[in-house]
Each structure stands twice: as structure tokens, then as C-alpha cells.
Specification:
The complex is a heterodimer of chains A (about 400) and B (about 240). Chain A contains 15 helices and ten strands. With about 400 residues, chain A is of the alpha+beta class. Chain A folds into two domains: about 1-55 and about 270-405, no CATH class; about 55-265, no CATH class. The two termini of chain A are about 30 Å apart. Chain B is globular, with a radius of gyration of 17 Å. Chain B contains seven helices and ten strands. Chain B has a six-stranded mixed β-sheet with strand order 6-7-8-3-9-10, with helices on both faces. A four-stranded antiparallel β-sheet of chain B has the order 2-1-4-5, with helices on one face. Chain B has helices at about 55-60, 85-90, 110-120, 125-140, 155-165, 185-200, 210-215, and strands spanning about 10-20, 30-40, 45-50, 70-75, 75-80, 95-100, 170-175, 205, 220-225, 225-230. Chain B has a domain at about 40-60 and about 80-220: 3-Layer(aba) Sandwich (Rossmann fold). By secondary structure, chain B is α/β, with parallel strands linked by helices. In chain B, helix 3 (about 110-120) crosses helix 4. Classes of the chains: A alpha+beta (about 400), B alpha/beta (about 240). The complex binds adenosine-5'-triphosphate (ATP) and magnesium ion. Adenosine-5'-triphosphate binds near residues 28, 48, 50, 51 and 52 of chain B. Adenosine-5'-triphosphate binds near residues 22, 50, 52 and 55 of chain B.
Amino acid sequence: MNRLLAVLRLAMWAAFSKPSRAALLIATLGGGAAGVAVAAGVMSGYAREMERMTFGAYARSLVITENTFLDDRFGPPRLADIPRLQEALRDSVEAWAAWRSATGDVRYGREQANLPVRGVLGDYRREADMPLQAGRALTLAETQGADRLCVLGAGAARQLFRNDPAVGEAIRINGISCDVVGVFAEAENQLAERYRQSVFAPFTAAARYFENADAFGSAGPNEVSQLTIVLTPETRRRAALMTADQTLRRSHGVPQAQVSPFEYADPAAPTRALERQRDLIGRLLITIAAVTVAVALTGYAAAANAAVDMRRREIALQMMSGATGRLITAQVLIEGLIIGLAASVAGSALVMAGAGLAQTFARFPFELNPGVIALTFVAGALTGLIASLPPARRAASGSPALSARG
Amino acid sequence: MTPAHGSAEPVLQAIGAGRVYGRANAAVPALLDADLAFHRGEVCALRGRSGSGKTTLLNLLGLLDRPTSGRIVFLGKDTSGYSDRRLALTRRGALGYVLQDAGLIENMTAVDNVCLPGFYAGLSARRAREIALRALGDVGLADKAERRVGALSGGERMRVGLARALSLEPQLIIADEPTASLDAETAHAVIDRLARAAAGGACVIAASHDPIVLERATRTVALAHGRVVTPEPVA
Ligand SMILES: Nc1ncnc2c1ncn2[C@@H]1O[C@H](COP(=O)(O)OP(=O)(O)OP(=O)(O)O)[C@@H](O)[C@H]1O
Ligand SMILES: [Mg+2]
């Protein structure tokens, strides 16, 4: 125990006894550590970005809307299209929801706000996958009915109620009273952000009571502003899209030759694009990190070997004083570990500063979280340790007889 | 227990010990067939011209090197079959070395240099330091303990080396030209200190031409071309 402590002290001393050599060795290993920190930082930046974009089951959805660039001859999808699509897509349908969107003048007491009013029908929570903060969500039966009930997005609730409880209160939407049954919580993803200002009401109630005819034009009570069909994971999206389009064309009387009057959005497209980008950049950065680590390893091993050669006498004197080969090995390895840790500090600091600087020029996904720092330290310590194996062997193989020959 | 002097078991014996450096056609036979025995309380001066094999012999006697022929017996135990590790363990605390150029680690302080044998003998840092400071005080360097040895004079460095060699009160002290670079006064101080260790029961073997050392030696062994030329007095 005492001996190990002594070796630790000696290693510490040896690591920093020549500041210029220590600086060189730290710089060598620091490059590798920085490479790892950059790669890990960018990868975790992407992971975070993607987490923010996660759409869950919605990513597997076919989101059907009217193609608004065409002449308004065929109109948006209608409620009657839903059973037809279900029939045509059969086992591919995991869930579906129909939406209407309008803006309403929403009031509670003295508070007033113009908010999106969403009429929902079906399994709308699969899409707006937000946790509740208070009360309850609209049930399936309620979405099929026309009761004047609503659930508020977190932002909408804040605007109308500040911090007071909203559940059980009645708000007025375009002058019509509506009972609040629940409030959604804030959620950290883009979809939840999209809905945080919304008021959710049953589809038919929205069409019948809450839409201001002037504001929404002449939307019929059966017209759907967005139809979401969540496909089962096995379904091939392309095939489902063709089937859906054929079904809708037949139902709306649109010839195949004509451009489809419907749009089929792919909610997962941005995530997939980001994923591709991450894979590409990730591979590149991991390669670069691997190369810098390899360079650090060989560089450190060579420099430390040279240092051991320069310290042959010193090591011989330690052996003369009673050091075994093992203790000398341990000392050189611990020295590598210490330099590796110092290099991790230097490398992370460098990357932190570099990332801060780079972020001021261009936004890119980068996150230096504790996991990344830990990985950088593990990488630094490990490279220091591994690169010290050859010099440690070399040091331990020296002869104590060298002591006598200055 | 064996008595400290006289015909008791020798501390150290070289039996037909030889050392050949290099191998095959480039072989240098630096020491040939040395038969020597050393006892407690003795100060043995080792003489010989430069290149006669003094350092080579001292390395064998100090268990720093292995003979290529013959044996070295330390405290009754034949060390020829010892591994490097076993030799290192045997050296701990039992042997002290005074080197020609002091043999100090340059970037360390004097006290840290003197602490080394204590560290490897397994003493706590505090205990090793205590002992090292006492040993430094003993050679008159108490006030220079915290100096880097690179900043000390030649004589001071030699005394730091002496303190390191003696700090753990070893049974065997190997000294290679301990006074070569010293003024007469310091040389006297050094040999006094070595003689005191011998009087305390240690065995001192010193390679030297210095009359100051020779006059204090209890016995002299001469080397010429790797051979012992003074016959060992029969024990
Ligand atoms: N490592 C070695 N490899 C080859 N030859 C060596 C080695 N060490 C010493 N020698 C040779 O062995 C012989 C004896 O050397 P040694 O150092 O023992 O002499 P010495 O008596 O101590 O001399 P000096 O008084 O100059 O210190 C010399 O000829 C020397 O050149
Ligand atoms: Mg010599």
C-alpha cells in the first residue's frame, strides 16, 4: 500500500518533472481526446435534435390534405372517405384521425385570444401524443359526438387561465360556451410545440358551433382538413399511398391521368433526412476520431519511449534503490494515465471553446453533456494507458547496473 | 546470532565470479574468476587502474548485475538463480550504494532522493521522510533538504548520495570512487561516515585510489585486467 502510494507520487512527479515534455505529451494525447469529444459531442447533438423531432407512431402516418395548388374542384377529403380508406387499406391501418382546423375567438372571463380550434375525430392522441397536465382527454365516443367539450393545449391554457385551474370551467369559442375537460402538458418535441396553442373539440361540435363561417370560408360539415392514417410498422408506405390515392380518386371522381388533388405528407421525412445526415457525419467524425486516437497512441508511445530512454539512468537508480520491474511498469502506466487525464481536460476544454466559437458562425447539432465528457476522459485515460504499455515494458527491462555508469 | 566480527559467516562472497560483456566475437571479459569474501565491520578498498573491472565487480557484489560465471552469495544465500525481481527485493533496505557521480535524480529535491530506498522498502511517506531528513542532517545538509539536487555543489551532491546509501542502515555498502571529486576535508568526512557505518556492523566495499580512503581501509583488494591480484587472506 505504502509502496503503491509512493509509485503514485513518483508517477505524478515523473509526469510533470519536465514541463516541456509534459506539455508535448499532453498535446499529443489531447488531440485524440479532442477528436473523441468532437465526434461524441456531435453525435449526441444529433441524438438530442432527433429526440426533439420524434413523432412516435405519427412518423408512420400518411397525412392526407387537399392539394391547395390545384383549382378547388374536388375539395378536401370527406368523412365518408374514412370507411372507404379503411376498407381499401385494411390491415395496414393501425389508427386514424380526422381533423378540422379553424381559428376562433376564444374567451374566458376578461381574457381573450385568437387560437387555432381543432375539431378531432378518432384516435387523435396517437398524433398529438402529449401527456396531460390536468383533467382528461376527449374519449373516442366524445370525438364522435357533438358535445361542447374541449381540451386545451398548454399554451392556450396559459393564455386564458394564467396559472388558475382550467378544468371544469367554461370558455367561449366564437361566442359559444364550451366546457374544458383537460389540459395538455408542455412537451419537448416539435409536434407538441405545434399544438400547444390549440383548443381541441369534437369534430362535429367544432363544425357545428365553433367555426366562424366568415373565417373558414365555405367548408362543409363533412369536410376534413387533415386525415391522418397511422400505418402498421410492416406496411410499405409507398404502396399504402398508391392505394389511398386510388381510393380517394375513385370516391371524388378524379381520373388517373390528372394530378392528384390530394397531398400525402410524410411526417418522418425531416427525421429521416437528419438521420441520413447524422449517419454520414457520424461515420466521418468517427473515422477522424479513430485516426486522431491512432496518431495520439503512436505519437505518445514514441515520445514516451524516447523519454524512457532519456531516463534510463533515473530508472536504474530507482531499481538500485529497490524498485522491482513491476513497480517501474506501474509507475510508467500511471504516468500515462495521468497524462491521459490531463489531456482529456485539455481536449474537452479545447472542444468546448471551439464549439462555442463555431456555434457563433453556424448552428449545428453539438452537445457536450456529462456523457460526452465522461467518454472523452475514458478515451484519454485509455489511450494514455495503452500507449504507455511499450514504454513501460522498455523501462522495466532496464538494468539497475546502469546506475553505476553515469 | 553470529558475532559481528572475526571468522563469522561472511556477509558476502564471490565464488569464481566472472563477467563477460557482450557476446561471441565482441565479448569483453571484464572480470575473471574472482574469489572474495567480505565480513561485517570491514572497510575493503578496491584498487586497480581504470578499466581493470572495479565497477564491474562492485555491480556483481551489489546485486545490481549477475555474473556470467561463478556465484555471488549474500548472507549465506546463493543469488545466482534469483530473478530480477528477487534481486530487487533482496537489495531493499539491505544494500546501500554510493556512486562516483552521486547518482541522483536531477529534478527531485535532496530529501526526495534520499527517500527513495525508504519508499521501496515499504515505509510510509511520512516515515521515509523522517528517516531521510535525519540522514541528511547526519551529513550536514539539513538546510538543503528541499533544494533540487541539480542546484547543489558536487560535494553536496555526494553527501546527498551518501545519505541515501546510509539512511536505512544497510548491512552492505558499495561505494564507487566515493571521494574522487571531493576536496580533502569533504573526503575525510565521507570516509569517516563510511567507517562509522562499518563500526556499526556494516560491511563497506569501496573502489578507490584515494590515500584518504586507503589509510582508513581495514583491507585492500587489487584488480588488474579483471583479475584479483591481492590474494585473499585466509579467513
Ligand atoms: N556494458 C559494458 N559493455 C561492454 N564493455 C564494458 C561494459 N562495461 C564495462 N565494460 C568494459 O569492461 C572493462 C571494465 O570496466 P569497469 O567499468 O569495470 O572498469 P573500472 O575499473 O570501473 O574503470 P574506472 O576506474 O575507469 O571506472 C572495461 O574495459 C570496460 O570498457
Ligand atoms: Mg568504474
